[in-house]
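wait is this the right file?? whatever heres the structure
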């Protein structure tokens, strides 16, 4: 027998087996053939495996969305991963925001209050971006990769063996159907007894193959419990990575809050808002509220330098400007950092303001932007 004849006979046998399984499957669906049921333990294991696969996929996909909210970036990373190439390095959102803040701060002037604050905020945002990058990398290695390995590895093996078990069951039930028909024909003396014997032998063989495949599938499915234990350890690693990330972010923001605490309270609220203009009541976030609480009070700085004496007399004093200030309206005087102006108080003026003079220019100035000189 040459190779071509052998291949032709194998193809014919495979086609016959496929047809037999298709007929058996169709008759079972139509209720015209009996079906061998799996034992309850094996059915429970199959159900547990399917449930594990379903929720593992959902958790994995949503974790990817959490770590990388940009869908286009996720698609790009997926393509590079499939091509076995490293994705190009790019700035994440906090890093990009931080860079914009730093560039703006340098443009406005590092010596100004706003420019200095922008630079400090930008540096903090970039540190948060670096922590975010570390979280993504750690989570990908310790959490996402094990979940993906289960879906693309262990569960694929389970699916393959389960499909083989299904085929062995169809072969077994088809053999049982043929044996049943042979016995009916024998009773009618339509066939010889050896046909029944042949069918019985076929049932024994297919039953043995089915039992062996059921055992293989059962052993694989019982490994799902070990998979759960492994995924639990991976989940702990993911939680620890998140805890480290959020602790870093909190510390970065806490340090930033302390740095901003050295700026005037007028700057933190709205340095363009006149004290006489009504402002809508807005609830202050806890972080800004605590930041405001840490700012030096007016009474501890300027009043201690002689503000009370200035208000009680009709005289004037020289004052150095601490920060740039843009006048909000014609009644105010714009200021430049480090310039020296003349200030004095007039009756009925708000306690947070003084009158300032520079040459022929005159207008209200915020006291928190001033340092009274001797």
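ok assuming it is, sequence goes like this
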């Amino acid at each position: 027998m040459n190779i071509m004849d052998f291949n032709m006979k194998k193809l014919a046998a495979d086609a016959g087996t496929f047809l037999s399984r298709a007929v058996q499957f169709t008759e079972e669906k139509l209720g015209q053939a009996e079906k061998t049921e799996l034992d309850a333990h094996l059915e429970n294991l199959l159900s547990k495996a399917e449930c594990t696969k379903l929720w593992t996929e959902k958790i994995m996909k949503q974790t990817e969305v959490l770590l990388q909210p940009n869908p286009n970036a996720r698609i790009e990373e997926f393509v590079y991963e499939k091509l076995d190439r490293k994705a190009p390095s790019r700035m994440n959102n906090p890093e990009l925001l931080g860079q914009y803040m730093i560039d703006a701060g340098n443009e406005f002037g590092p010596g100004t209050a706003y420019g200095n604050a922008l630079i400090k905020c930008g540096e903090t945002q970039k540190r948060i971006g670096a922590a975010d990058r570390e979280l993504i990398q750690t989570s990908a290695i310790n959490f996402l990769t094990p979940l993906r390995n289960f879906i693309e590895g262990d569960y694929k093996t389970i699916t393959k063996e389960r499909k083989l078990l299904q085929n062995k069951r169809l072969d077994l039930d088809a053999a049982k159907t043929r044996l049943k028909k042979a016995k009916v024909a024998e009773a009618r003396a339509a066939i010889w007894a050896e046909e029944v014997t042949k069918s019985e032998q076929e049932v024994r063989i297919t039953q043995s193959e089915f039992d062996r495949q059921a055992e293989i599938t059962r052993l694989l499915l019982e490994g799902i419990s070990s998979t759960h234990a492994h995924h639990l350890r991976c989940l702990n690693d993911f939680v620890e990575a998140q805890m480290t990330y959020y602790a870093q972010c909190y510390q970065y923001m806490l340090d930033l809050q302390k740095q901003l605490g050295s700026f005037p309270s007028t700057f933190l609220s709205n340095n363009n808002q006149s004290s006489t203009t009504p402002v809508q009541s807005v609830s202050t976030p806890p972080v800004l509220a605590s930041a405001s609480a840490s700012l030096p009070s007016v009474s501890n700085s300027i009043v201690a330098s002689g503000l009370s004496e200035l208000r009680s007399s009709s005289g004037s004093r020289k004052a150095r400007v601490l920060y740039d200030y843009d006048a909000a309206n014609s009644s105010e005087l714009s200021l430049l950092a480090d310039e020296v102006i003349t200030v004095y108080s007039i009756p009925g003026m708000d306690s947070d303001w003084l009158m300032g003079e520079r040459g022929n220019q005159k207008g209200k100035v915020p006291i928190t932007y001033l340092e009274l000189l001797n």
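Residues 265-305 have pLDDT under 50 and may be disordered. so i think its the right one actually
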